[in-house]
Amino acid sequence: MSQILIIEDEARIASFVAKGLKAAGFTSDHAATGRDGYHKAMTGDFELIILDLGLPDEDGMDVLERLRGTGNDLPVIVLTARTTIEATVDSLERGADDYIAKPFRFEELLARVRLRLKSGGAAAAPTSIMRCGDVELDPISRSVTVAGRTVDLSAREFSLAEAFMSHPGQALSREQLLSRVWGYDYDPGSNVVDVYVRYLRGKFGAHRIETVRGVGYRMAATDAS
Fold first, then answer.
1. pTM of the model
2. Is 124 within 8 Å of 2 (Cβ atoms)?
3. Among residues 159, 97, 156, which one has the least CA distance to residue 122?
4. Rounded to an integer, what distance in angstroms lies between the CA atom of residue 153 and that of residue 160?
5. In which order are the strands placed within the sheet that holds 149-151?
6. Sequential pLDDT tens for the chain (225 residues)
7. How far apart are CA 155 and CA 51, in angstroms?
8. Residue 202: which residues within 8 A CB-CB, separation 6 or more?
9. How far is Cα 163 from Cα 148, in angstroms, rounded to an integer?
10. CA–CA dist 132, 165 (Å, integer)
11. Which of 44, 71, 113, 160 is least surrounded, with the fewest CB atoms within 10 Å of its CB?
């Protein structure tokens, strides 16, 4: 199981990312300061770092530069509210492997994590094809087949399908789906989950996504047609 270090000042975001990583099969540790993050990165057994730039004690850029200066070559994904092209270029030039601007969707971050672990040769990244009944989803190629036929999904539909297929047969609440697919800044009163479930049912077949009264929805663990 891949261990990921989250160096993030905002506890809400760190918790959101940690919960999502756990659901995807990863373990994680959290550091709220640059000093603590650097120490953990140098002494712990991690395979990837998610690094915020706006840390309370020092700039994340300096943490990144110090890590690279000591020969630490762990993949680093910068996760930051800085959205300028200058910040992006500066991060990459100082040794970051990827850059995601806040606000962000967890499914995008998860895809970047999997990609970096795969390209880095890490062993336990959950990148294999996901299967649920006669539905197959490949998180790397971003392709989906249903009963052998290819189904075209939008980016959001794909993220929702991946959330369901990560928990086959398990009921997921609307709040869980909003958090995983639409991000930590979602509107809890939105009906967007119901709308996108209808979209998926139209492409997968209504029987493959079941309504769980009083809870939310679940992906049928087998083809119930």
1. 0.61
2. yes
3. 97
4. 10
5. 130-132, 135-138, 143-146, 149-151
6. 579 999 999 999 999 999 889 888 899 999 999 999 999 999 989 999 999 999 999 999 999 999 999 989 999 999 988 888 888 888 888 899 999 988 888 888 988 898 888 765 343 444 468 889 899 998 777 889 999 999 999 888 988 998 898 888 889 998 888 877 877 666 767 789 999 999 999 999 999 999 999 999 999 876 544
7. 25
8. none
9. 21
10. 6
11. 71
Tokens at residue 76, please?
């680093």
By three-state DSSP, how is residue 143 classified?
strand
3-state secondary structure 23-57: HCCCEEEEECCHHHHHHHHHHCCCCEEEECCECCC
What are the DSSP E strand ranges found in the chain? 3-7, 27-31, 48-51, 76-80, 98-101, 130-132, 135-138, 143-146, 149-151, 172-173, 209-212, 216-219
Q: How many Cβ atoms from other residues are within 10 Å of residue 118's Cβ?
A: 12
Token reading at 185: 């800044």
Rounded CA gap, 99 and 109, in Å? Answer: 10
